[in-house]
Amino acid sequence: MRIDAHQHFWQLARADYGWLTPALGPIYRDYGPADLAPLLARHALDRTILVQAAPTEAETRFLLGIAARTPFVAGVVGWADFDAPDIARRIDLLASHDRLVGLRPMVQDIEDDDWLAKPSLAPAFAAMRKHGLVFDALLLPRHIPAALAMLAREPELPVVIDHAAKPDLVAGDLAAWRTGITALAAHPNTVCKLSGLVTEAAAGWTVETVRPVAEHLISSFGPQRLIFGSDWPVVTLRADYSRWIETAEALLEGCSEAEREAVFGGNAARVYLSRGGR
Question: pTM value?
């Protein structure tokens, strides 16, 4: 099974996407299953993981509704307010939907860079472990120290690093990012998405622009802990769906066929879909 483990749908009229403004031009419109289905068929992708794009439980329920009526959506990574005093109850309610596979606070947008290190988040992580949910970590490089502190306290929590923690491919200074990725990869329950890289690069990027990042991810996590995602439709700010898949395939050309199959589906199935009878 081939899986796109990171894609989005949204409806602008819902009005809870604070980051999604007219300035983003080509993606400032509604996107739904009918838009993505032809792209999946063209590239023989069987299933997807649908990821939240707004910091509201209302959007999570909206996505769960889409998943319930869209056969190719295998699971939803939603959002919950980890700072809420009743967070355990909230996660219990969201997890009653069998398509919920994970939760993703939008850490990159939280003002406190040390938020992930807060001991007060423990009830949220406990509720996630109870329901077999994956924690999707939407990080920038500056958040990696807090993520490492969280991982030290939560060694049993399955964690997926979204977009490889967004290395700065415009400035090209990857030293701190490399050190952080190596430290994250030392935690065996942590995997990383090969996704969202080209939107961190300048216009005119090539495969060689992102190759150093991919090579470090492969050497740090190994092909058995990397997961392909398109980040569609956000990716279209820099590349169409086909070009990103072709780029990912080129970046993995040194891997064996079995390793490429793992990155393009097997690992996502293991991480997101093998828990709780999903």
Answer: 0.97
